[in-house]
Amino acid sequence: MTSLRIRRGMVVLLAAVTVGGVVSQEVPADAASYQTVSTKKIKKTAYHKKSSKGAIFNKKHTKKVSNLKAHPNTTWYATKQATLKHGKTKGIYLYVNNSKKSVKGWVWHSYLKKGKAPFVLKKAKAAVAMDAKTGKVVWSKHANTARPIASVSKIMTLYLTLKKVDGKSSNWNKKIKIKSKGLVRMSRTSAYGGFHFKLNHSYTVKQLYDAAFLDSSNNSAIALGQWVAGSNGKFIKKMNAQAKAWKLGHAHFVSASGLENSDLRQFGYKYGSANANKVSAKDVALMARHLMTDFPRVLKDGKVGSKRVNGQLCYNYNNMLKGRKYYQASLKVDGLKTGYTPLAGYCFVGTGQKSGKHRVITVVLHDENEFSETRSLMNHVYGFSSMAN
């Protein structure tokens, strides 16, 4: 879009153009009086913005490429340095570009600070990255704040189920008869179900395990809990006892599935006075670490994209697995658990092991872009020397 503007008897042409996906503005010709005194190549050096001030220009300063405040978390790489003269003033300028080289130009050196931009997750309300080998937290955001975790709760349910199965095929093949009309109704609702139950029909422990793990079936998780402990209430007590044994200081359970009591009430499965399971991001990571360490089979089970269980398709919603939208070959993600309710937001526990590195466990809670932010977090922490084997 081009416009003419009259200023003090002068006609000044202003034009808006697009450069590297951002709008660039032409600077009036009477302001373009920058002259190059000297230019030299420098060793590629990382910088980030020092404050909200500053902008990137072309060398003659006739075109603004972008304001620095539009890139709050960008690392800029400087490869050239120039001394520019503007009127009677001289200044040192750096030629910089972002990592994709989609934005590049010259910026006054004092607007930048040496070093890579601090890593942030914009959308997740809480997050953590843990070295699975050492149990050390290597990055965190509000990691000790207990939050609703939706179906991520099933990590504890799967752990207690595997503990009772104890690797015995006789336990995997044990049949559980569905006598609860509430569970059947739950299984048939679009919001809470998925893996359909038939009243008085029997399912094996393995079938319910697959449905709860892959399809995140809430009714299957509750049925497993009843098998493990004898009743829903006793199982939830078992969940809290296990959390206490692991010394999880920010974990409390009222549901085997991760559904909130406000939803469970209609099916006859409300338990306790609190509305939701609440666990901190760090404690979720510790739960996942216990699950993978004690029962490594979950890494094989968790990377199954989909399978038919009792004639029904169970689909794994982990979109970081091979063949999915957010897959990145180098991260080798092979688990672990998704979760969502309107209260908890999108939650995801991811794990993978880059070649030559320790396995990482990541947790994002109440996110909007749970897979893209998990991928960014994994790539970030794999840059730490402490993650190397």
Automatic annotation (TrEMBL):
<keyword id="KW-0645">Protease</keyword>
<keyword id="KW-0133">Cell shape</keyword>
<keyword id="KW-0121">Carboxypeptidase</keyword>
<dbReference type="InterPro" id="IPR001967">
    <property type="entry name" value="Peptidase_S11_N"/>
</dbReference>
<keyword id="KW-0573">Peptidoglycan synthesis</keyword>
<keyword id="KW-0961">Cell wall biogenesis/degradation</keyword>
<comment type="similarity">
    <text>Belongs to the peptidase S11 family.</text>
</comment>
<keyword id="KW-0378">Hydrolase</keyword>
<feature type="domain" description="Peptidase S11 D-alanyl-D-alanine carboxypeptidase A N-terminal">
    <location>
        <begin position="123"/>
        <end position="368"/>
    </location>
</feature>
<feature type="signal peptide">
    <location>
        <begin position="1"/>
        <end position="24"/>
    </location>
</feature>
<keyword id="KW-0732">Signal</keyword>
<dbReference type="InterPro" id="IPR012338">
    <property type="entry name" value="Beta-lactam/transpept-like"/>
</dbReference>
<dbReference type="InterPro" id="IPR018044">
    <property type="entry name" value="Peptidase_S11"/>
</dbReference>
<dbReference type="GO" id="GO:0004180">
    <property type="term" value="F:carboxypeptidase activity"/>
</dbReference>
<protein>
    <submittedName>
        <fullName>D-alanyl-D-alanine carboxypeptidase family protein</fullName>
        <ecNumber>3.4.-.-</ecNumber>
    </submittedName>
</protein>
<dbReference type="Pfam" id="PF00768">
    <property type="entry name" value="Peptidase_S11"/>
</dbReference>
